[in-house]
User: Which sequence fits this backbone?
């Protein structure tokens, strides 16, 4: 059986440049859609978070920003169906990435607060990249690779092709204008070959060897389908 590790943010808020904290967590569709597709394919999923803290759903992701009402209802129903798993994640420092066929990071604004700076996640990402085994990060989750930098600031992901939520897409959120920094800028500054689609909020997937990234929530399905096709 194909074993998959979902690394999910444990953050409940995103600190903005004015000092306010915007409530956040993981983005519903970015976790639910890949989880559903992988489960339907017969893959076994383990959910891990920093400290083993139950992840928080960003309720905005099931509001108007989450798509049409019918779609939001489907996503919520799926998340409800796996709530038992989400309420009892494994602590990230207790997992061994080499035991999994795929490591998958769903996004949401939460990773901007914790995974971007988490040394345990950073070590896992360094090891995973070096192994050449499949690694996928979606929307804001690619920010986690910043924590993979060494003491001198060198990043093993430098030079790799990746995507993630663009500056333009971030600024579509009113609170996004208050961000201390943007994912696209941070990846570029780290030496990553950042790519994005021609139009915002449209599916866009970048694949560089065994490194898979999706630009935005709308890319969740396409990213999961591409992984399924490649790992079949």
Assistant:
């Amino acid at each position: 059986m194909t074993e998959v590790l979902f690394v999910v943010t444990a953050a409940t808020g995103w600190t903005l440049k004015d000092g306010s904290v915007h409530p956040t967590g993981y983005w519903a569709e970015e976790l639910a859609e890949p989880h559903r597709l992988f489960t339907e394919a017969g893959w076994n999923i383990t959910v891990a978070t920093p400290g083993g803290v139950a992840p928080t759903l960003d309720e905005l992701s099931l509001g108007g920003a989450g798509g049409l009402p019918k779609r939001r209802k489907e996503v919520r129903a799926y998340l409800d169906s796996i709530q038992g798993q989400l309420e009892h994640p494994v602590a990230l420092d207790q997992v061994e990435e080499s035991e999994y066929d795929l490591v998958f990071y769903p996004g949401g604004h939460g990773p901007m607060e914790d995974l971007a700076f988490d040394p345990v996640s950073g070590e896992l990402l360094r090891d995973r990249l070096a192994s050449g085994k499949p690694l996928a990060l979606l929307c804001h989750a690619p920010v986690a690779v910043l924590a993979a930098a060494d003491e001198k600031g060198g990043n093993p992901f430098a030079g790799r092709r990746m995507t993630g939520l663009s500056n333009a897409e971030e600024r579509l959120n009113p609170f996004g204008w208050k961000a201390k920094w943007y994912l696209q800028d941070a990846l570029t500054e780290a030496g990553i070959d950042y790519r994005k689609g021609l139009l915002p909020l449209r599916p866009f997937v970048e694949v560089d060897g065994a490194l898979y990234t999706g630009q935005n929530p709308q890319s969740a399905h396409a990213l999961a389908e591409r992984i399924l096709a490649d790992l079949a």
User: Anything to note?
Assistant: The chain has one domain: 3-231. The domain at 3-231 is CATH 3.40.50.880 (Rossmann fold).
